[in-house]
Amino acid sequence: MLDDLERRIAEALQIDPRASWRRIARVLGEHERLITRRGTALLETRGVVVAGVRHEGSSTLVRGICHPGARLTAAEALALRPDSTFTYVLSGAFDVVAEIHRRPRSPAYSLDASITPGLARAETLPILRYFRTIRGWRLGVLTEAESRALTRGPSETFPDSETPEPDSPVDLAIIDALEGDARMSLDEMARRAGVSESTVRRRLDLLQEKNQVSIRALVEPTEAGLHTEALLWMRVAPHRIHQVATAVAAERSARYVAVVAGSCQLMADVTVPDPAALYRLLTESTWASHVEALDVSMVAGARKRGGQLLSMPGATEDQPVARS
């Protein structure tokens, strides 16, 4: 469990994943040496993981029902796909879920998940629009003034439904470097790409502006005292979709909100301290009255988040970090 200072550092990294320790220390009002020591330890122990995530093509959610005793097998197979961003083991009507990025010009609905080991049946839900991604989720421990001081540009931008693949060798080298170490210095990226530091700075800003890559600070919810994570699968009338999606995305507990095509129209990933808090969210929120039908899947374990493989009971140990 993260202590108070670690949570403050973690949220600073959520806001600006590449912020220097000096800048974070100045905003938080702490000594730079203390922030450097504690922040470096957080990254080394993977209490916080800063990851570069490549965006190209379209995205699809895959949720499936597994053969008896095969949930971990299916979750492992989905997590080890290089094009998967997250993979969760679930309770409820579905056993596993994953987000898959498809290459440009490869229709999202063409994904054949039925050959995934362990899956008995799978449903694909192409993502039509994001209203929240993990890039915009915050722990909520910093003051508004501290958050503003750390914010650079829009608080969150979303990948397009069809993002073009970068074709510049320099851009591809930058993205490869970020996927390996998203806090790598501009000088080191410049050496790897064979260009000047100013060129890397300019190209990185453009890649982020075009949403071809995003940089995220990943924090496990349980480390912040949020022990209940659930996926909400909502059926909503067409004329209410935008209204409900906007309202759900405004919830502090919402980590991920997307409009999808399929048997439901909206999916949200929410994290709260306990089941009682989840009950209050579902029964007292104003947007709940506009939801025609709701299915709740509890997240029993995360094998992959933000393209990064995580330890999970029963999962294969010592797997390399996967590219997303």
From TrEMBL:
SMART domains: HTH_ASNC. It holds the Pfam family AsnC_trans_reg. Gene3D superfamilies: 3.30.70.920, Winged helix-like DNA-binding domain superfamily/Winged helix DNA-binding domain (1.10.10.10). It comes from the Bacteria. Keywords: DNA-binding, Transcription, Transcription regulation. The keyword Signal does not apply. PANTHER family: LEUCINE-RESPONSIVE REGULATORY PROTEIN, TRANSCRIPTIONAL REGULATOR AZLB. This is Lrp/AsnC family transcriptional regulator. Residues 170-227 form the HTH asnC-type domain.
